[in-house]
Amino acid sequence: MTVLRLGKVAHGGVVVGRIDDKVVFVTGGLPGEVVEIEVTERGRRFDRGVVTRVVEAAPGRVEPICPVAGECGGCDWQHADARTQRELKRAVVAEQLERLAGLDWQGEVEAVEPLLGWRTRMRYAVAAGKLGLRGRRSHQVVALPEQGCAVAAPGPSPSMLRGRADEGELSVVVSDDGVSVLAGRQVVQGPTVVHQRVGGRRYRVAAGGFWQVHPRAAEVLLEAVLAGLMPQPGESALDLYCGVGLFAGGLDAAGASVFGVELDARAIAHARRNVPGARFLASSLARALPRLPERVDLVVLDPPRRGAGAEVVRHVAGLMPRAIAHVACDPASLGRDLGLFRQAGYEPVDIRALDLFPMTHHVECVAILQRP
Asked: Which of 128, 256, 303, 335 could disulfide-link 100, Cβ–Cβ 3.0 to 4.6 Å?
């Protein structure tokens, strides 16, 4: 065991410490604390460790709500109060944007209630009849406590779920229609197609398909995108990585002519029913780029965690839109994409960070870009 004082927060829900001038990424600590740690992984450039005892606590430290918070890989910051969690995420967003895009971001992370009982899509691991979540940086299953997961939306209790599967994955989806349970990809309880109402529109989505996990996320993100783009009737708009058409629906309601692209053909089938006034294409975006209009007024990008990447950014910038909304769930990939957009002549005029994943290190951002 080693005692050290922790430094700044780093991306990924860890805090930086040093042992004999070697960096160690520490789980379970807060910046400024003096802690005792156990080194759990050793590498050539850095090690990883976990706090075993707090010697001097930071002002924002609290007792975790969940008895397995220190073992489970689901939550990173249960030992920090809500304000401290948002400050940790703010510091990470600012550091990533400065390092990867050369931006001096002075924003704050906006709180979005609720902070507990919010996760409407839960994926549990089942091994040898044990129901739980994967351990941090491990395939080991950490058994759920009897009260269930603290961040899971109200749904079936662990005792009700046990026996649904002996091995593999068990997913619980809480929607406007109630609860669906999936063993692997098979729906074993509840509807196979669920509905979510946002902005006056009712969206169909497969029970096992993608939808934002926080109950207010879709509404908050749609409002942020529309407020930033300010779509006008008759404008043309692209919704790239469109899923079941959330942003397409908002743009369509504002009078824009919308074309959406999404790899998942099942999601596109739902999007066509959700937003009948828009056009959609089921395709990877790389293959769809030559089929996009030559000019467009507005673009919404909501790429996967890895980001949009150079090819997509260059193509989107070449369409000369008057405004672009980039929705990102990872500040590092957002920073890389914004750096590429800046090289292509687009600058962010507003960047909002939203705490749509309380208790975890994840944070959602919406960046609005325009040409100077």
From this structure: 335
Where in the sequence numbering do the catalytic residues fall?
329
* φ, ψ dihedrals at 171, nearest 5°: -110, 140
* Domains observed in the chain: 2-61 (2.40.50.140), 90-114+215-370 (3.40.50.150), 121-196 (no CATH)
Reduce the DSSP state of residue 171 to 3 states and report it: strand
pTM of the model: 0.95
Among candidate residues 264, 173, 155, the one with its CA nearest the CA of residue 213:
173
Is-contact 230 259, C-beta < 8 A? Answer: no
CA separation for the pair 43, 54 (Å, rounded): 24
Q: Do 124 and 172 touch, CB atoms closer than 8 A?
A: yes
| Per-residue pLDDT tens over the stretch 215-248 | 999 999 999 999 999 999 999 999 999 999 999 9
Q: Which residues define the annotated binding site for S-adenosyl-L-methionine? A: 212, 241, 262, 302
The number of beta carbons lying within 10 Å of the beta carbon of residue 332 is: 20
Q: Which residues are annotated as a binding site?
A: 212, 241, 262, 302
